[in-house]
Please model this.
Amino acid sequence: MQAPTRLIHPELRRAALDLLVCADPAEKCQRVRELFERRAELALDTATDLTADPSIAALVQQQVPGRPPRPRLVDPAAVPQRSPFTLEGRAALVHAICHIEFNAINLALDAVWRFPGMPAAFYDDWLRVAAEEAYHFGLLRAHLQRLAADNTPAWDYGAFDAHDGLWAMCEKTAHDPTARMALVPRTLEARGLDATPLIQAKLRKVGTADALEAIGLLDIILRDEVGHVAIGNHWYRWLCERQGLEPVAHYRHLARLHSAPRLRPPFNDEARRRAGFSQAELDYLLGA
Model:
C-alpha cells in the first residue's frame, strides 16, 4: 500500500490550492483523494480571501492550473474527429473524456480555494467532487493504457490533442461564485449528462470488449456526475436566494455576459431532473 503523502498546508482551502498547482496527474489524483479522506484533520478558514494575498496571486498567475506539458491544447475546432469503429478512434474518445475529468479535478479544487464566505458544506462538497473526479480520471486512464494496439506504444493521457474550454470558463467566472456555479457545473459539466448516453449508444454499435468495458465506466461516471451537477444546482440556487435573484432570469443574464455556449438538444431530461433542474429550467433550454 502506498504511504500517505504529507499534506503541505494545515488549512483546507490553502491545501486545495497546493493540489491545484500540482502538475503530475497521478500525484494530483492520489493527493486529492488523501486530502478528502483527511479533511477532518485540517482547519477550515471560510473567511479569508486568498486571492488578496500577493504571494498567492503570483503563484496562481504562474502555476494555475497545474497540468502536464501534454496534451497539446488547441482550438476546439482543431481537435480531429475520429471514428469509434477504429481502435485509435476509441482511444481518442476515451482520451477526450479523460481530459474532461482531469479538468474537472482542477475546477473543483479551484472552487474550494478561491471563494470565501461560503458555508463549510460548500467546501466539503467540492472537495468530494474533486476526489470523485480523480477516481474517474484513474479509471479512464487505466482503460486508455490498455487500448494499445499490437506492437505500438501504450496510449496514455497526453497522447492526443485536446482543448481548454472548461478551464477558459473557469477563468471567466473567477470573480463571481454565482457565475461559476451557473456556467461550469450546471452548464458545461451538465452537458456530459446529455452526451454520455449518445456516446454509449455508439460504443454499443462497435460491440468490442473494450467498447463494452468503456460503457461500464461511463455508467459509473454518469451516476456520479448527476450528483456533481446537483451540487452546482444547489449552490447556484443558494447564492441566488442570498442575493435576491431569480435563478432562470439570472442564468440567462450570466450566459450572455460570459458568452456561454448555447446548448442544443437532445437533452437527458431524466438525468437533469435527478440533478435538480426544474421544469422551468428544462423549458428554458429548449427555448434558449
In short: The mean pLDDT is 93.
